[in-house]
Amino acid sequence: MQVGLMHYLVLSALLFCTGLYGVVTRRNAVAILMGIELMLNAANINLVAFNRYVTPTAVGGQVFALVIITLAACEAAVGLALVLAAYRSLETTQVDEINIMKW
Amino acid sequence: MGELGVFIILALVTLIPAVVVVTSHNIVRAALSLVPSFLGVTGLYILLQAEFVAGIQVLIYVGAITVLLLFVIMLTEGGTGVRLRQVNEQVPLGAMAAVWLAFVIIVILTRTVWPIGAGSPPPYNAVAIGNAFMTDYVLIFEATSLVLLVSLIGAIVTARGEE
Prior knowledge:
The complex is a heterodimer.
Chain A: H1 5-25, H2 29-53, H3 60-90
Helix pairs in contact in A: 1-2, 2-3
Chain B: H1 2-23, H2 27-47, H3 51-75, H4 91-111, H5 125-135, H6 138-160
């Protein structure tokens, strides 16, 4: 049986929902960012799979995936800087303890 | 048959550590489980004949983002908070929502007829992507560079703290 487009789409859907579960249930802010990275990877798998199976002669999907990898790195850097700054003043990284606007 | 076997192995290498990432009570183990998950995704890219994207995935995801996550775990109290409760009270609702969303997405994707294109990928993947970035997608390239610069400055200023 050949590996078709459907295999990659199902895999990326499962990976996306795993990341979504991590974002919704975890208390640590860094763990939430890990879930976000899993979701971005799932979207990247989708893009590259569509590029390979729907338009194999073009590279648009891979260009899009590269841009998403770059932006994921930027967003992880800024998000983790925010976590560090919040930890410095609030002394916690558990997001359900950060529930008032002014310390 | 060989390709399907490789795909199954890579899918398991991607999904099982991903489940460990979102359910582990040890935050360092969760961060380290990202590494096999990202390497599985790298293998999937190579199977999809996107070698340049696979190389960039290893460099940036495994090499930079995972290390950055581990550094932030070290600098905050997460490493010592193993005995803290790591999941909040939304676990049953979150699990239901994730399973339902996976079911809906898979049903929609398998019932759609995708126009499978003919042809083969270009022989040198990096050359094709380089040409695309310099001709068709040069605006995206420049804008992404600008976003990188701004986010670098922003991250440094945000994490620097009071002077």
